[in-house]
Amino acid sequence: MLNVLVGVLPGGFMIASSIVVGSAPAAVVGGLGSPAWGSLVVAFAVSAGLLFVQQLLAPLSVSLGRVLKHQVDGRFHDQILAASLRSTGIAGLEDHQAAGDLWLAAEQLERGRTPGDAAAGTVALVVKYTQLATYTVLLGVAVSWWAAAVVCLVTMTFRVGHRAVVRIYTRLRPIMGPLRRESMYFRDLGTGPGAAKETRVFGLTGWLAERYRSSALAALRPVWRERRRANGVAFAWRTVFGVVMAVLVLAWMLSSAAAGQLSLTHLVLGVQATLGAISLGEFYHESDNGTQFGMQSVSALRRFQEASAALDAPQAAASTESAAPLLGGVRFKNVSFAYPGSDRLVLDGLDLTIQAGQCTALVGLNGSGKTTLVKLLSRLYEPTSGAILADGRAISSLEADAWRRQIAVIFQDFNRYELSVADNIAFGAVEQPADPGRVAAAAHKAGIDGAIAKLPHGLGTLLSRRYAEGAELSGGQWQRIALARALYAMDHGARLLVLDEPTSALDVRAEAAFYEEFIANARGRTTLLISHRFSSIRHADRIVVLEHGRVVEDGTHQSLLDQGGRYAGLYDLQARRFQAGEDIEGTER
Ligand SMILES: Nc1ncnc2c1ncn2[C@@H]1O[C@H](COP(=O)(O)OP(=O)(O)OP(=O)(O)O)[C@@H](O)[C@H]1O
């Protein structure tokens, strides 16, 4: 409503100021104090008043537009976070297309093309089109309706032209999107610290700069081509048409006034309305980009939400039973699994029981499905067929977050939070208030307390080089921090500890020592240790060998050696290499 008023006010000013000009000759003739002079003063006061109100309300309208933008954007940010942090599954985040849509939604926000801009831009359009409507009506009433129609047509022709240029970006989005994503990837690779070592060591810096340049140019060239086309001949035609029409209308008004068919007031009003309307045929900075692109992030987010919902198994969202503390073991019953969009069974009729109170080691070559098994256990994916039972209840029927509090999982690619050491450990049980004593105890159990003591602020040290007071840990120390996080979770009620390749950053001897120490400490706890190295986990209560998504051997270290099967073969191979002083890892990868 405010914007309608802001749109109408310039029309009011035009009327009042035209009356001022129209009544000036009579006022001059009548002199000071004459009725004509009085009318002139009233018209002048009204026009000044209208101008004043207009100057007062226009900034208010802009400010309210900004408030609207920030409110809409705030809500949208919440929606993006809520969509990407949905806790039922991660299939959408790991799917190329869906993840691309989520990236697009966030990227549009970073580029300042937000739903808030669309909302504020739409509201700002109300001002512009109310103005155009007002000028058209004034011209129609004061001069002629055909002149009003022509001027309105000219303005809209310019507007259509400007919008056509803006629309080019939307039309080319399917081509530009992947290219832009590629160029952003190369830019981030070149400017971020993560890849800095390798790009220099391998001499990739020149290659990186060239790939960034070529992919950025490939994304921009189609836009430049289309823009030249839209801004070239079509623009020239529109300009010629607009200028000719405007000149014709103005000339006609002048000749009518000269012939005495149009009063001075009507002439001034007609000229003002014509020029005012035509000046509205411009590009609207406050509206055009926002209304054209602002909703793209919304559509991209909707696509991501739909794809995630379709990719995640429906039971994941539906399960609501509360999870009782896990007392017995966990059983994988004939579990098969293929990643969404793939027919390949990564797990194929897997039968496995993780016994309570035992340390079970799961070994298998790269790609045999070990991490996938942990993702199913954590309910980040649901089995394609079969069931995972905890104390005899299908975990798919349990409320996902409640079930996850029963397990403490450290993935291979665990998170390194750029927060304090204490936070990194206490995230193991984030739903409970952090307990410094138990944090220190977990750090001690994970064998990282010595390294923490040497940090400038102990447990309070920020683990990030981005801060002056921050510190960086080695890969092996980070792994111990992650282990401390899992132990802290166990200390707060988690019943099953899962470590997926917890020692990949340790050297062979440190790894062997870690496993020996860990397995000894974990006695009596339900633990699942995952490794692709067969030699390290020989002290586990039980060793399960996974191959092509199935259990192929199951027993103690000694019984598996006696069987002389897969485990024995690979164990012997590693042991011989180790004795020969070669890198064990090299044999198996
Ligand atoms: N998100 C995913 N989408 C599609 N396929 C996947 C995905 N993650 C893993 N895979 C495939 O599933 C198979 C098993 O992978 P998984 O990570 O479970 O193996 P792994 O035994 O843990 O291997 P590693 O010892 O190398 O960690 C691999 O062939 C892999 O390519």
UniProtKB/TrEMBL annotation:
<dbReference type="GO" id="GO:0034040">
    <property type="term" value="F:ATPase-coupled lipid transmembrane transporter activity"/>
</dbReference>
<comment type="similarity">
    <text>Belongs to the ABC transporter superfamily. Siderophore-Fe(3+) uptake transporter (SIUT) (TC 3.A.1.21) family.</text>
</comment>
<dbReference type="GO" id="GO:0016887">
    <property type="term" value="F:ATP hydrolysis activity"/>
</dbReference>
<dbReference type="InterPro" id="IPR003439">
    <property type="entry name" value="ABC_transporter-like_ATP-bd"/>
</dbReference>
<feature type="transmembrane region" description="Helical">
    <location>
        <begin position="235"/>
        <end position="254"/>
    </location>
</feature>
<keyword id="KW-0547">Nucleotide-binding</keyword>
<dbReference type="Pfam" id="PF00005">
    <property type="entry name" value="ABC_tran"/>
</dbReference>
<keyword id="KW-1003">Cell membrane</keyword>
<feature type="transmembrane region" description="Helical">
    <location>
        <begin position="36"/>
        <end position="57"/>
    </location>
</feature>
<keyword id="KW-1133">Transmembrane helix</keyword>
<keyword id="KW-0812">Transmembrane</keyword>
<feature type="transmembrane region" description="Helical">
    <location>
        <begin position="6"/>
        <end position="29"/>
    </location>
</feature>
<protein>
    <recommendedName>
        <fullName>ABC transporter domain-containing protein</fullName>
    </recommendedName>
</protein>
<dbReference type="GO" id="GO:0005524">
    <property type="term" value="F:ATP binding"/>
</dbReference>
<dbReference type="InterPro" id="IPR039421">
    <property type="entry name" value="Type_1_exporter"/>
</dbReference>
<keyword id="KW-0067">ATP-binding</keyword>
<dbReference type="InterPro" id="IPR027417">
    <property type="entry name" value="P-loop_NTPase"/>
</dbReference>
<dbReference type="InterPro" id="IPR017871">
    <property type="entry name" value="ABC_transporter-like_CS"/>
</dbReference>
<feature type="transmembrane region" description="Helical">
    <location>
        <begin position="132"/>
        <end position="158"/>
    </location>
</feature>
<keyword id="KW-0997">Cell inner membrane</keyword>
<keyword id="KW-0813">Transport</keyword>
<dbReference type="GO" id="GO:0005886">
    <property type="term" value="C:plasma membrane"/>
</dbReference>
<keyword id="KW-0472">Membrane</keyword>
<dbReference type="InterPro" id="IPR003593">
    <property type="entry name" value="AAA+_ATPase"/>
</dbReference>
<feature type="domain" description="ABC transporter">
    <location>
        <begin position="330"/>
        <end position="573"/>
    </location>
</feature>
<dbReference type="InterPro" id="IPR036640">
    <property type="entry name" value="ABC1_TM_sf"/>
</dbReference>
